[in-house]
Design brief:
CATH class: Mainly Beta
Shape: globular
Strand content: 25-35%
Distance between the termini: 66 Å
CATH superfamily: Pleckstrin-homology domain (PH domain)/Phosphotyrosine-binding domain (PTB)
Order of helices and strands: HEEEEEHHEEH
Number of helices: 4
Largest sheet: 7 strands, antiparallel
Number of strands: 7
CATH architecture: Roll
Strand order of the largest sheet: 4-3-2-1-7-6-5
Number of domains: 1
Structural class: alpha+beta
């Protein structure tokens, strides 16, 4: 009985993951651009258009666009962020965030600025993303499931910002 239940849960997870890939591929075809890099994270706070603890997918696209994508069943919605609108993108561990709480972060992120104190050996990784939406500064905090992938995303976003700065000054 339990084995069937476990197999059912695994099957549902596989189907949902394939469904996510199908949705992303259909969006790629529709827009004429391909997804170069994707990683998921949990939105902890800061973006008024996202719910707290909502899982989002970050994508870097072949047309030098960075976007945050939400998938609801077979539908998706996304927010495009131009490299010129990104102010800062950082990768930090929980310990680094605790040491680096500033007044601006405290105001922007509220209680999330301190992160929850845990006495475990598990390393929690975060991405701090400051960007503009319609000329309004947004300070977001995202928790990554896979620290290595989240770190790669931060590296790629910062690379996009540098490439864009070089294009503007040239």
């Amino acid at each position: 009985m339990y084995i069937l239940l476990i197999l059912g849960v695994i099957l549902i997870a596989i189907i949902m993951n394939n469904n996510k890939q199908d949705i992303i591929e259909k969006a790629d075809e529709k827009e004429g651009a391909t997804t170069i890099f994707t990683v998921d994270a949990t939105h902890l706070g800061g973006n008024p258009n996202l719910k707290q603890n909502e899982i989002v997918f970050f994508q870097i696209r072949s047309n030098n666009v960075f976007r945050i994508q939400l998938i609801h069943g077979s539908e998706y919605e996304y927010q495009v962020i131009k490299p010129t609108d990104i102010i800062k993108c950082e990768f930090k561990t929980e310990q680094e965030i605790k040491k680096d709480v500033t007044v601006g972060r405290l105001i922007g992120l509220g209680v999330f600025a301190f992160a929850l104190k845990k006495k475990t050996k598990e390393i929690t990784n975060y991405m701090i993303l400051d960007y503009k939406i319609n000329s309004i500064l947004v300070n977001c905090l995202f928790e990554g499931r896979d620290g290595q992938e989240l770190s790669k995303l931060v590296y790629k976003i910062n690379g996009m910002m540098l490439t864009n700065e070089e294009a503007i000054t040239s």
